[in-house]
Amino acid sequence: MKIASIKTFVVEIPFHDGGNPKIITPMTWHTLENVLVRVEDELGNVGWGEAFGYFVADSVRAMIDRLIAPLAVGQTITDIAAWNLDTQLRLHIFGRYGVTMFGLSGVDMALWDLQAKREELPLHHLLGGGTRSSIPAYASLVRYGEGSIAPKVCERALREGFKHIKLHENVVGEVAECRRAIGRDIPLATDVNCSWAIDATREWLPKLAEIDLAWLEEPIFPPEDFQALASLRGHGVPISAGENWCTAVQFEEALRQGAVDSIQPSVTKVGGVSECMRIANLAAQYDTLVLPHSPYFGPGLLATLHLAAAQPGVPLVEYHYVETDGWLYDIKGLLHDGLMHVPTAAGLGLEMNMSVFEQFRRS
């Protein structure tokens, strides 16, 4: 396929979660910044992708426009994965991680959507098939930091049909309160976003084991300290990480060192669909569970569903449990009783709501 144009957009949609302003990052988090990538071929077919952009949308967009798009526009791309690796090589001087890989992820995803549309196939068929029509989703809550809020939100998620819950609470007592609220039968995990020291984590592991935690996500900083992560395994609490790793190179090293019980590649950050498939092959080689990171409502979530459908061993996908002021896609139409249905139309499988796109598009 010959690439005629690549255009980028930032669509910023407010969200609401029933809590106070979020302080996981240096700024309050109250909008979803979607860096959308539109790729058009010589026949007028269009593919859409999403690059990670929360708080860094303008930098990611500039990376695509100035450095990545010129490596694709006017080119005939017959092997997207090979183009991806060649682009990584040509851009390595600008950093192998961060905004470089975020931008590449969005373009790679759009190319896969475009290719699947050209072949009139749903993306998961292009990735090797997949027989599952739906995949269980877990409700991924924001961090509330107040003991009274998170348990109530957990209970609401259960009433809405979710059967798995992930918190972002980083105080053991608050995690325990949520466990008491939902009982022992519901799988419960927590992501502490690298906020614990390793000695404190070791001290708290017995209590977390008593809580029967499904997994502990990104307990320590830096997230790529694979040796330290490996030392936390085997104490009754599965360890998971990977949303802040980029490229299959980091994942292979983590797997080689036995750093985690499950890996969490993020298709909008790691290098796109191509890199996720390389990581899937590594996970199979090392017999390690894949729990994709996907707190998105745009092409990133749709691509995650197709990737999961092509990997029978993926047990769950992440659903960002907030309410937004608009929906780029009919995501809620895919969600039924805790299951996310995999779209079956060509490409990513859903049409973007362009009125929402225009309403929240940022100039």
From TrEMBL:
Keywords: Magnesium, Metal-binding
Keyword set includes Cell division: no
Gene3D superfamilies hit by this protein: Enolase-like C-terminal domain, Enolase-like, N-terminal domain
Molecular function GO terms recorded: hydro-lyase activity; magnesium ion binding
Needed cofactors: Mg(2+)
Signal peptide: none
Highest taxon of source: Bacteria
Keyword Cell inner membrane: no
GO biological process, one term: carbohydrate catabolic process
Protein's name according to its UniProt entry: Mandelate racemase/muconate lactonizing enzyme family protein
